């Protein structure tokens, strides 16, 4: 950014273009937001679209985070469509949130984003009613989890997921979910398993949120004794005294159980990264690296075994699990990535940082997969981690070409070259799917221009001009995507009127995906 600062001022096309994008992004967000409070309505999308959204949700998020009991939900869902009467409001709120979450993978460009935003606002309005707190129970926690997931995934609301997860964790503990249901007298299997599933999901979301914002996990293994969910299909727990299936048999809970096997090691990683007293101990990093890999090996072997026994994990299951584990490995080694560029003793961390980043990028960019669509269209943990992986790869590539002192062009491996070519279209695709913050796209374009300039042995002035041109093109591309969004949100609106530009604010290009 020093290069940009030296060659631009407030009247430069790059700066004015960025400020126009920022103003347009604010306008789009304002157009998406309904009037508050937003009363819960009974109006629904068509049955065909509703079925597709529900299927999208159950094929993605519910496979990772068990929240709902699928047969119970399906029974209420079918009854709602068959009845002419008023639907149950608590169920309607959950359906609204399922629709909002399913909309992220409904199509390639998140065409239902504005509708999803309204559905979330309706749910938030309903759950904020004072009398709702008198209904504390599993359904209350389910609705809160769905709302929390929807707000992060669709980028609704200013409160960080870490704050919301902390409140949810304490609510669950006040209801006793941190104690295993075996402590309760004569509790049916259905109740026991739903409590374990909900607690397991809350643990996972708390850990995920602290990795996203850099906050403390605020929980230890010693704080609870609730066992992981049993290896049951949903239909099983409705019967009397069902037996949990062996680990080698894949069920609707297997993916969440596999993730739980790695929870202690991932929690240790998060605690180390947020430890203000211990600092970055490299020996502890190497120990946790081995611990994390061992737990992942155990988890993935369970799923691979079940792959041979009839039912098997989906592509989304395997991609999401692999991605999550590599995100923790990447975060574990990243503090030593900069040091590794100059100190050979940290070469292992550089190797791990690049390998995990490339794997995460490859998983997130596997075209035509549900997981890739989810990464591109959603916001939060998965999108941010994918973008950070791409930036790490570009930074490493920049370092390589800067170190190359030969006169011939720096040779690039095909996979690295393809990643470099694909990074810019992907960040633009995120903007086209509804992202209103262009920082990720702009930083990617500037890095690419710097790499290409270095490879071409450009002078400092040529490098600066090349980066400025790349930045100007990035803002023009984003502005075009924003204008298309405004047309959809405000078909009768006039031409975009650029407001007065504030150049003293937010030229901090830290991505906030």
TrEMBL record:
GO terms for cellular component: nucleus. This is Xylanolytic transcriptional activator regulatory domain-containing protein. Keywords: DNA-binding, Metal-binding, Nucleus, Transcription, Transcription regulation, Zinc. The keyword Transcription applies. It holds the Pfam family Fungal_trans. InterPro entries: Fungal_TF_Env_Response (IPR051430), XnlR_reg_dom (IPR007219). GO terms for biological process: DNA-templated transcription. Residues 161-235 form the Xylanolytic transcriptional activator regulatory domain. GO terms for molecular function: DNA-binding transcription activator activity, RNA polymerase II-specific; RNA polymerase II cis-regulatory region sequence-specific DNA binding; zinc ion binding. It comes from Fusarium irregulare.
């Amino acid at each position: 950014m020093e290069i940009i600062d030296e060659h631009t001022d407030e009247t430069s096309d790059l700066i004015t273009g960025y400020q126009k994008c920022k103003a347009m992004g604010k306008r789009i967000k304002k157009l998406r937001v309904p009037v508050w409070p937003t009363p819960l309505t009974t109006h629904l999308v068509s049955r065909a679209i509703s079925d597709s959204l529900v299927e999208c949700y159950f094929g993605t998020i519910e496979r990772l985070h068990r929240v709902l009991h699928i047969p119970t939900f399906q029974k209420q869902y079918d009854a709602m469509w068959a009845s002419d009467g008023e639907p149950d409001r608590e169920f309607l709120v959950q359906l609204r949130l399922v629709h909002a979450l399913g909309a992220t993978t409904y199509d390639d460009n998140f065409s239902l984003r504005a509708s999803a935003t309204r559905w979330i606002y309706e749910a938030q309005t309903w759950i904020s009613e004072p009398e709702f707190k008198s209904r504390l129970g599993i359904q209350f926690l389910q609705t809160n989890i769905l709302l929390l997931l929807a707000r992060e995934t669709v980028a609704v609301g200013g409160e960080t997921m870490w704050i919301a997860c902390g409140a949810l964790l304490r609510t669950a503990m006040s209801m006793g979910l941190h104690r295993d249901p075996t402590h309760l007298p004569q509790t049916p299997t259905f109740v026991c398993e739903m409590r374990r599933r909900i607690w397991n999901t809350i643990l996972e979301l708390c850990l995920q949120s602290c990795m996203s914002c850099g906050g403390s996990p605020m929980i230890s293994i010693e704080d609870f004794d609730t066992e992981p969910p049993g290896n049951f299909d949903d239909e099983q727990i409705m019967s009397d005294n069902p037996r949990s299936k062996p680990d080698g048999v894949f069920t609707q809970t297997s993916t969440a159980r596999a993730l739980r096997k790695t929870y202690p090691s991932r929690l240790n990683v998060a605690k180390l990264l947020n430890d203000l007293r211990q600092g970055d101990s490299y020996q502890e990093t190497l120990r946790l690296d081995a611990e994390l890999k061992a737990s992942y090996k155990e988890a993935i072997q369970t799923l691979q075994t079940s792959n041979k026994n009839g039912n098997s994990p989906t592509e989304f299951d395997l991609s999401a699990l692999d991605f999550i584990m590599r995100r923790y490995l990447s975060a574990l080694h990243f503090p030593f990535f900069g040091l590794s560029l100059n100190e050979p003793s940290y070469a292992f961390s550089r190797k791990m940082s690049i390998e995990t980043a490339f794997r995460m990028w490859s998983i997130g960019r596997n075209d035509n997969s549900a997981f890739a669509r989810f990464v591109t269209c959603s916001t939060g943990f998965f999108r941010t981690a994918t973008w950070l992986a791409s930036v790490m790869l570009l930074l490493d590539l920049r370092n390589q070409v800067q170190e190359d002192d030969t006169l011939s062009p720096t040779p690039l491996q095909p996979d690295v070259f393809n990643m470099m070519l694909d990074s810019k279209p992907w960040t633009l695709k995120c903007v086209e799917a509804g992202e209103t913050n262009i920082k990720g796209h702009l930083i990617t374009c500037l890095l690419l221009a710097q790499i290409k300039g270095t490879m071409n042995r450009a002078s400092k002035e040529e490098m600066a001009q090349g980066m400025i041109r790349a930045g100007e093109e990035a803002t023009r591309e984003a502005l075009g995507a924003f204008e298309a969004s405004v047309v959809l949100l405000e078909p009768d609106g006039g031409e975009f009127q650029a407001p007065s530009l504030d150049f003293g604010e937010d030229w901090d290009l830290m991505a906030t995906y």
